[in-house]
Design brief:
By secondary structure, the protein is an all-alpha fold. Helix content is 76%, strand content 0%. It has helices at 3-15, 18-45, 47-50, 53-74, 77-86, 93-107, 119-141, 143-146, 163-177, 179-195, 197-209, 211-219. Helix 2 runs antiparallel to helix 7 (119-141), helix 4 packs antiparallel against helix 6 and helix 10 (179-195) packs across helix 11 (197-209).
Length: 228
Amino acid sequence: MSNQQKKGRLQQIREATPEQVLYWLRVANLSNGLCIIAGGTISFLSPSTLLSLTSIAIGAYIVLFGCMLFCYECRLKRMEETIRRNFGFLYSYSGRTLFILFIASLCLGTTSDNGGITVLGWITGILTFINAMFNCFVVYSHPAFKSGAISRDGDPTAGYKSGESLAGGAALTFAQNNPDLTKKAAKGAVNYAKENPEARKAAINYAKENPDVAIKVATGGNDNPFGP
């Protein structure tokens, strides 16, 4: 890639709207979280790692921090309070960037039984480091941050939709695009609910806690959920 192409892409990031660039950051962090979890799990279970207590501990921490990053970006309502209370540093753009950089250093610290850095550790660490630099570049060079419109100490999740809301929106879109399949699924769900009262109670409780999502999913956005 030429220097001109690199500058072009960096300029595109600078010229992107705040909504776009924050969405890119969230997608990058979610993908990175999954990569860290996968890399940490494989490293943790590899025969060479099992021979080293230090490597086992590092692998366990990598998986834990990967899960933390992923759940944080998903913004699951049930876990958000716990994460916010115990890991408040994540709720600032600068703190989140430093956390990702810290995970990268852990990944690069995974060693095999001969003391060398594992290939998987290199790959996961480098990808995580690149993501940390991407976060850093956005936070310190995008006009929205430089002008103070978005504070570097602000909460990155302030504009996030919760994981439950995203799931509900996906379910609504699927129902609208597949009315026949939705109708069959609804009939099956009714039969299942009759045979499983506990599941029926759980569904009722969810509908009470999320009335807007329940109404949209139930109606498909109009008066006839199975009509055109």
